[in-house]
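Ticket #4471: structure export looks truncated?
Reporter: QA, pipeline team
Priority: medium

Steps to reproduce: submit the single chain below to the structure queue and open the exported record.
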Amino acid sequence: YHLSDLPLSSGLNDVTVTIAEDGLPPRVVQFGVPFDPSLLDPGETDFSAAFGYDRQSLSRPFGSAYFYIGLAHALELGIDAQGEWGNYLGGISVLWASPVGFIGLGSAVDLRNPETGQAKPTWAAKASWRFSSPTNRYIPFLGLAAVYRSARFAPPEETGFTQSISEDPSWMFSGQIGQAIPAGMGSVALYGDSTVSRGTMTGSVLQAG
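Actual output as written to the record:
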């Protein structure tokens, strides 16, 4: 049998299939189907490219491009690049809607040296996980993420703010938990994040919404 166009929601869906055949008792098959509507189907692609010039100085061109492709069911690969004169950033990402949650992995390399103008690679990496069960209202939504930045890593949008460029490697952690309120009264969520540099927590935030 091949089933398609199931009415799935984002998260891990509990699916029950009843197979009825003439002369045989019905068979019931239950299984979980992970799904994320943002992922491309196998073989589908999404791409874009943009180029321009700084309004203040036409001698400073900049551009960005990305390409995403669906490799298999619930698995997507992407590459992207952006930059301006003397500052280039390239990255790769993998997204997977797995039975244990939505898993994202990514990395980026920054080719710049603001002091000498020569290429000196810095890099960053990110891992994220989130889980939801739309068919079970008693299981909360969970999300975790961790980002590592090497010393002096800065994407192009931050190069104009030198105070945000750290001289030390750093870790950034974030998490969230959400729960729907019965009787259609909405939901409640708790968010938190923190930054660690040189083994010391330099900032943390906790909020509810």
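Status: closed, not a bug. The export was complete when the record was re-opened. Leaving a note from the reviewer for reference: The two ends are 44 Å apart (CA to CA).
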